[in-house]
TrEMBL record:
Gene3D superfamilies: Tetracycline Repressor, domain 2. Coiled coil: none annotated. Residues 36-55 bind DNA. InterPro entries: Homeodomain-like_sf, HTH-type_Tx_Regulator, HTH_TetR, TetR_C_Firmicutes. The keyword DNA-binding applies. Pfam families: TetR_C_8, TetR_N. It comes from Planococcus shixiaomingii. Keywords: DNA-binding. SUPFAM superfamilies: Homeodomain-like (SSF46689). This is TetR/AcrR family transcriptional regulator. Residues 13-73 form the HTH tetR-type domain.
Length: 198
């Protein structure tokens, strides 16, 4: 799978994005189990031969979509922060949670978390990506004497963050990304005075 991602032309990258967008829209419309390769190529307005230039089958495009979004969740969460720099939570503002804006801008994909017949295993991806990010890259300075850098605490934080984000999605994104980011920052300030990104 990895070899197919290398050295692609801008046109090829665009074609793959259109296939994945079509796939995502179709899952939202009819459920994952009911989407076929034929559906994807028709919705994307390509032919099967073009699809098979990039993907072996439905499972292949599914895995690539999951992996791509999993990595984007991790990347978007730390784009603003310089490595090894101490960040005070009091200095954070509503633009400090890039992940929230990323999710809002990719609502079609994140709405897949809300439907029953969705990509198998998808429900685990958002909290797992956030947890891996916390474990690999973030060291928190606690408020008080709590050990908030332990794995079990970071797991708790990851699931709590994912839960609030998915509740926002489930309510139709009624709050703005800045409002949601502000709420997450307030929660973080209650337990962490600051953090450092590795």
């Amino acid at each position: 799978m990895e070899e197919k991602k290398e050295n692609l032309s801008p046109q090829a990258e665009r074609t793959k994005r259109q296939f994945k967008q079509a796939f995502t829209e179709l899952i939202n419309e009819k459920g994952y189990s009911r989407v076929s390769v034929t559906d994807i190529v028709q919705h994307a307005q390509y032919n099967r031969a073009t699809f098979y230039l990039y993907y072996l089958d439905k499972a292949h495009i599914t895995e690539e979509l999951r992996q791509e979004m999993f990595q984007q969740i991790k990347c978007k969460s730390m784009e603003r922060y310089e490595p090894e720099k101490e960040i005070s939570t009091t200095s954070m503002d509503a633009d400090s949670f890039e992940l929230v804006t990323f999710i809002y801008d990719n609502r079609s994909f994140f709405n897949l978390y809300l439907i029953e017949d969705t990509i198998p295993g998808l429900y685990k991806d958002l909290p797992r990506a956030i947890f891996e990010l916390f474990e690999e890259k973030f060291t928190f300075t606690p408020v008080g004497e709590h050990d908030i850098n332990s794995s079990h605490f970071k797991l708790y934080m990851a699931h709590g963050t994912a839960g609030l984000i998915l509740d926002w999605a489930g309510n139709g994104y009624q709050k703005s990304p800045k409002e949601v980011a502000g709420e997450l920052i307030e929660i973080l300030r209650a337990i962490a005075a600051g953090f450092r990104v590795e």
